[in-house]
Amino acid sequence: MGNQIIFLSFILVLNSLQGLQAAVQYDVTNNEANTPGGAIFTNQIGVEYTRQTLESASAFIWRTFGQTNEADRKNVQMVRVIVEDTSRILDVPAYATGNEIHLNTKYIASYTGDVKREITGVLYHEATHIWQWNGNGNGQPNIGNLTEGIADYVRLKADLAPSHWQQPGEGYKWDQGYDVTARFLDYCNSLREGFVAELNGKMRNDYNDNFFVELLGKSVDQLWTDYKTKYGK
Ligand SMILES: *[C@@H]1O[C@H](CO)[C@@H](O)[C@H](O)[C@H]1NC(C)=O
After folding, report:
1. Of 76, 103, 131, which marks where a domain is finished?
2. Where are the alpha helices (DSSP H) in the chain?
3. 64 lines ligand 1 (CB under 6 A)
4. From the CA of 141, how far away is ligand 1's center (Å)?
5. Averaged pLDDT, groups of 10, the chain, 233 residues long
6. CA of 233 relative to ligand 1 center, distance in Å
7. pTM attached to this predicted model
8. What CATH number does residue 79 fall under?
9. Looking at ligand 1, which atom is closest to the CA of residue 178?
């Protein structure tokens, strides 16, 4: 009897410890299994693979951002993927809003090539939007393209960059967004290991181009010039 009570309270303690570390839930819904893109999603990608990819992408993003403690991360309990025709709202491969990723079945249907790898890369990019800091909306106008660049940086580091991307040194300005900014951030990170993690951390409440000076001792424009010079572009 006494042993049972001790055992029971041990289990209760364990449960409450797990409660403190509530695992993030990942949920995937295919709303258009009967459309061409929805069927390709089912046959070549699948709900379970997408769920697992969200889980490993999230772990990868936390590592890339150096967020070993839950307290460093955004407070997100559940990430959802909805597979649907987004072209009525946004004609893009996918978009993220709040804790939801909307994957476009029209894009899946039109994609030629390894659609599973492509959608895996898209999921890494969109999952980054869910977990990254965005300066609380401060730091316009650069912040939007910078967050897109960080999302593509994560995709690049996960070895999921598509072949059509701009190469290192290409592009006409650092805040062009997406692949151009991702390659530039990769250069900045080579100057200081953990740069992107620190930059993201600084963007928790605010954003300012001066963050580049604080972390690398040079203005972002000077860094862009150095980067172009390094690649002879
Ligand atoms: C953001 O990126 C787009 C596309 O590359 C570009 O046209 C625009 O000028 C950029 N915005 C800023 C504020 O740099």
Report:
1. 131
2. 2-20, 36-40, 47-64, 105-110, 115-131, 142-157, 178-191, 195-202, 210-216, 220-230
3. no
4. 8
5. 56 53 90 97 98 98 96 95 94 96 98 97 98 91 94 98 97 97 98 98 96 98 98 91
6. 20
7. 0.90
8. 1.10.390.10
9. 5
